[in-house]
Amino acid sequence: MGDGGRGLGKVEVRIKWDPSPFGEAPRHLDIIATTYAADDPHGRPVYVVHCDSRSPDGTINMSRHSRTGLGLGYVEAMSFELDRLAPSFARVVVGVAIHQDPVPRTFGDMSNAGVLVVDGYRELLKDDFARFAGSTSVTVAEFVRDTASGEWEFHEALRGFDSDPVGFTAEMGSAPQP
């Protein structure tokens, strides 16, 4: 949602979590984004962006990545230059997934986990994943291009899933089931 009629420009999604207790396998979260075409906004993603990739045009990329959490606040961040994204895109869905290797984990196993979505200095969303204790992945945000104005809008999209990061990318943009 724009501020004073202004659509979103550069948005950042940040996540945090504490490292594993001493002697336990590392806990690893990742931000994942899927993009959808204007002619099929709820179909298959055109492309997926995660820690090992960026969008082909450079408008979506991981600016900070952590494999352990560090416990130092928001240690992983993905930036979205929505105002530069080609008009052929109408929707971007963003989620957070827990790596399930070497030990299966849910958000209930994570300590001090959280997500923050900002547009400049304006906070769009802040959540601690507490209501998703049994989930292994969560969608957090949906950015949708307004067909009339062409401006991008933010929609909170908090929804839990029980899938690994690969399976999550296939289902994260699906419509919620009643």
Could you describe the 3D structure shown?
By secondary structure, the chain is mainly beta. It has one helix and ten strands; from the N terminus they run E-E-E-E-E-E-E-E-E-E-H. The N terminus is likely disordered.
Order of helices and strands: EEEEEEEEEEH
| Helical run tally | 1
Provide the helix percentage. Answer: under 10%
Rg result: 16 Å
**Overall body shape:** globular
The percentage of residues in β strands lies in 35-45%
Biggest sheet architecture: 5 strands, antiparallel
**Average predicted confidence as pLDDT:** 89
Physical arrangement of strands within the biggest beta sheet = 4-5-1-7-8
Q: Tell me the quaternary state.
A: single chain
Based on helices, strands and strand pairing, what is the structural class? mainly beta
Low-confidence stretches: 1-5
Determine the N-to-C terminus distance. Answer: 25 Å
Number of strands: 10
Give the secondary structure arrangement, pairings included.
Elements: E1 10-16, E2 29-37, E3 47-49, E4 60-64, E5 76-81, E6 89-98, E7 114-119, E8 122-127, E9 137-145, E10 152-161, H1 165-171
Summarize the structure.
Helix content is 4%, strand content 40%. It contains one helix and ten strands; from the N terminus they run E-E-E-E-E-E-E-E-E-E-H. It is globular, with a radius of gyration of 16 Å.
